[in-house]
Structure formats: C-alpha cells, structure tokens
Amino acid sequence: MEQRKRIVVFGATGRTGEHVLTQSLEEGYDVIAYVRNPTKLSLQHARLTIMQGDIFNEEQVHHAIEGSDAVLCALGVPMGSKLPVCSVGTQNIIQAMKRNGVNRLIVITGLGVKRTRGDINWFERAFLTLFLCLDQAAADDKEIQEDLIEESQLDWTILRPPWLTHGKKTSRYRVGMGESVHPTLISRISRRDLAECMVQQITDRTFIRQAPYVMY
After folding, report:
1. Record's superkingdom (predicted)?
2. Fewest CB within a 10 Å sphere: which of 22, 95, 136, 214?
3. Is residue 29 part of a domain?
4. b or e along 117-146 (b: 16 or more beta carbons within 10 Å of the residue's beta carbon)?
5. Average pLDDT over residues 58-71
C-alpha cells in the first residue's frame, strides 16, 4: 500500500488556510498545521496534527517540515501590520525545506505583486497602485517573498488570485498565464476554489517554477 503523503500548511488559521486544511484532509493527506495560536483552529481530524510555533523561529519551522513531502504557504498579515511575516517566514520555510530535503513548495501571493501589474491596463494599474499604497509594507513584503521563492531552486509554484470571495466551491476556474487567463480588477475567485487549486498543485507539476493566475 502506498504511504500517505505528509504536508505542512503555514497560514492555516487564515481565511484561505482553513479551507486548505479541510481540502487537504479530504484528499487523504496527513497534515501538519503550523500555527502561532492553536486556539484559533477548531478543526479536529485523525490525520491533522496542530503544531504551535513562531514563523520567525527557523528551528521550529525546521522541526515542522521534517519528514514532509510538500509545503503549502498561505501566510498573510492584517492590514496595517508592519511585520515581515511573508518574507522572513518564507525565508525560514525555504531554508528548512533545503535542510530537510523537501522540494515541493506551493505559495499564494496575489494580483499586484511584481510583474502582475504589467498584465492589467493603465487605469487598473493606477487604481491598484493607489490601493497598495494604503498598505505599502505588506505589498513590499510580498515582493520580497516572491523574489526569495524564485531564487530558491525548489520546485515551487506561486498562485496569484485576484479578489477573493467567501463563495462556495465550484471547481470551475481557470489556471494559467498570458492571454488565456488575463486578470482585471473585477476578476474573482472564492477562497474554497483557491484552496482546491492549491491542494491540486501538490501532485500536478504543470506549473513548476511558474506563477499562474487562478480565477473564474
């Protein structure tokens, strides 16, 4: 019998992360949820292990990733936070993955990060730039995060959703880059569908070392 794969989820208590946990368990994975505050996670399951730790502590992150097959990162911070959670956290994740010989990394960032601004028209770009200025620290943190991932030499995939909703899971969305999947400011995807797409990337190698959009 094939041994079940073990994955680690960072950002598991977030609004998208909770769906990543649920759908990972539904797919039969053994799941480690690495969280700062376990009281924020009410989900219980025989294949779910909740590990308390600090994303800024590289040794704790290393311990969480030890023995895993893939890492899913849905890190984020509340608007206005100055903490470099995404960049420093991702750096610690990458270092821990290399130490443990784990190669598969799937990360959620978003529209407006780095070169994605070139994929929308000038009006949308101006609006998005103004919006990002309201939380420039978080935007800069995401930029650094993507640079770290792209330079990591891991088998990474960055998923770039547009605006996120709390809608139901439809399993009807597009994943890709270029003209076939072109974002606008009205592009949407539900957190549940984004989570499904993220979990699928564990075994789907279509977008290795690529950063596709995910949207309806």
Report:
1. Bacteria
2. 136
3. yes
4. eebbeeebbeebeeebeebeebbebbbebb
5. 98
Number of domains making up the chain: 1
Domain that holds residue 210: 6-215
119 vs 50: which has the higher pLDDT: 50
Confidence of residue 132 (pLDDT cuts 50, 70, 90): low
Q: Is residue 35 part of a domain?
A: yes
Residue 156, pLDDT above cutoff 60? yes
26 phi, psi to nearest 5 deg: -60, -30
Three-state secondary structure call for residue 85? helix
Residue at 1 is within a domain: no
Q: Return the CATH number at 198.
A: 3.40.50.720
